[in-house]
Amino acid sequence: MAEALTSIPLTSLPRISQGKVRDLFSLPNDENPTLLFVTSDRISAYDVILKNGIPTKGAILTLLSAKWFEVLSSRVPGLKHHFLHLGPPPASGLSQDEQQMLRGRSMTVRRLKIFPIEAIVRGYVTGSAWAEYQKTQTIHGLPQPAGLKRCERLPKTIYTPSTKAELGDKDVNISPDEARGIVGDKYASRLEELALNCYNAGAAYAEERGIIIADTKFEFGLDEETDEIYLVDEVLTPDSSRFWSKADYESGRDQDSFDKQILRNWLTENGLKGKPDVEMTPDVVEKTKGRYTEVFKLMTGESLEVVLERTG
Ligand code: ATP
Ligand code: MG
Fold first, then answer.
1. Full 3-state SS string of 59-119
2. Which of 99, 102, 126, 259 could covalently link to 106 via disulfide, CB atoms 3.0 to 4.6 Å apart?
């Protein structure tokens, strides 16, 4: 099995930031500021980055997001997004080794001012929403009908934002009104509308392919020159969403999901939840890689190898 790439050895471009999973590099471009958005094979769970990574995960997340930008553009009226093209721009001065290292895992995007909230949308009640619902019959402060079961489909898709924490901190669930206080009246309603429309379009597309998108997190950015909102970041990936198999779905119990659930369960069972410097066993790596690979194939209809071959 190919080695996982947990750090991005790229020295030809200035690195402007490093998140839990991605490294961002600035690209020379005077008119429209652009970034090289690079996804490593790092994986985080419970807000902690694991010591080793998941081979090919960076390419899976990048190529799946690229697919979604294309799908959502045609299905969400008026949607603008940050994606310009896969890979770095031609003639950006990268070495052969660097280009090979980036294969499938980088995209050139518009550099925007990121709204400091996570635009979460939920179609089903699970995770922190289920915990809150059981206590107060609300989700992010929004009143819900009585009698919902674990993982049940919500009567109405809801916009349930959270704060966007700095590296090392935890995001906090907030109500749409609190999000309005953070982003301002001028943008709040449009962000909510875009997030709901992107979720609804994505969920319908996924459902045709046998996958339920239980919930997901979008991020949006602002072009301050034109005052336009753009969908940014990764989109509808197993890192940013909960994907369930439609065939196996049944409310009233937890669902198996196509994401980090195997890793989360392993961490919890071994008392490693939230601990730093944890190394996943080869078995956990292999199974997690399998889940990511499987969902990529289901969602795009093609294997990772085929898409990598076509996109270079
Ligand atoms: P998590 O995704 O778990 O919250 P993270 O926030 O550390 O982790 P990464 O995915 O590792 O994020 O890094 C991506 C970073 O790039 C995020 O901070 C995101 O807000 C930012 N970003 C995404 N798109 C753009 C863009 N077009 N312009 C500027 N920054 C962007
Ligand atoms: Mg992120």
1. HHHHHHHHHHHHHHHHHCCCCCECEEEECCCCCCCCCHHHHHHHCCCEEEEECCEECCEEE
2. 102
CB 211 within 8 Å of CB 244: yes
Give the bridge partners for 243, in sequence order.
Answer: 213
**Residues in CB range of 305: below 8 A, 6 or more apart:** none
Give, using CA atoms, the residue closest to atom 23 of ligand 1: 233
Report the helix count and the strand count for the chain, using DSSP H and E: 8, 16
**3-state secondary structure (DSSP) of residue 26:** strand
CA-proximal residue: ligand 1, atom 22 (nearest): 233
pTM (2 decimals)? 0.96
Beta strand 44-45 with 153-159 is unpaired
Distance CA 279, CA 219 (A): 29
Ligand 1 pocket residue status of 22, Cβ below 6 Å:
yes
Cβ-contact 213, 242 below 8 angstroms: yes
Rounded distance between C-alpha atoms, residue 93 and residue 242, angstroms: 38
Q: Which ligand is nearest to the CA of 232?
A: 1
Are 16 and 111 in contact, with CB atoms under 8 Å apart?
Answer: no
Position 259 confidence tier, pLDDT thresholds 50, 70, 90:
confident
- pLDDT tens-digit readout, 184-219: 999 999 999 999 999 999 999 999 999 999 999 999
Task: Fill in the DSSP letter of residue 302.
Answer: S
Each residue's pLDDT tens digit, 129-143 = 999 999 999 999 999
Question: φ, ψ for residue 18 (rounded to 5)?
Answer: -135, 120
CB-ligand 1 contact for 118 (6 Å cutoff)? no
